[in-house]
Amino acid sequence: MNVSSANLRGALGSASLMYLALPVALFLLGWLRPLLGLASVALLAAAVWAAVRDAQRGPAPPDRALSPVWLAASALPVALVFAVAVVGVALDATGDWSKNF
Questions:
Q1: Which residue of 1, 16, 37, 54 has the smallest Cβ count within 10 Å?
Q2: Where are the beta strands (DSSP E) in 1-101?
Q3: How far apart are CA 19 and CA 52, in angstroms?
Q4: Which pLDDT tens digit goes with each residue over 75-94?
């Protein structure tokens, strides 16, 4: 049986993705309400399936550059979370936060 390094790399990457997704799926099923947990696990399974399918195809060609629009669109949710989660401005961590700092 002849196994090429590309096939082995794809199989190892696929197994790694599934291994990393398993605890996330267990967390979602155990922490969220059942219907929301099942929907979240279904989305996670779809994302892992798409990533495994892409990993089996091999590396993407290097000419696919990230456009500034996609970069801004992906940075916007992160910036919103940081803006909302500023301790002492929008959310207080504990009642004695202002007393200690």
A1: 1
A2: none
A3: 12
A4: 888 887 777 666 555 555 55
What are the residue ranges in the chain where pLDDT is below 50? Answer: none
Query: Cα 34 vs. chain centroid, distance in angstroms?
Result: 21
92's tokens: 């207080």
Residues 6 or more apart whose CB falls under 8 angstroms from that of 88 comprise 97, 98, 101
Q: Which two tokens stand for residue 79?
A: 């910036």
Tell me which residue of 75, 29, 24 sits closest to 48, measured CA to CA.
24
CA-nearest of 48, 50, 29 to 39 is 29
Calculate Rg over the CA atoms of the chain: 20
What separation in angstroms does the CA of 69 have from each of 30, 63, 74, 79? Answer: 37, 17, 9, 15
Q: Is 88 exposed, middle or buried (0-12, 13-18, 19+ CB in 10 A)?
A: exposed
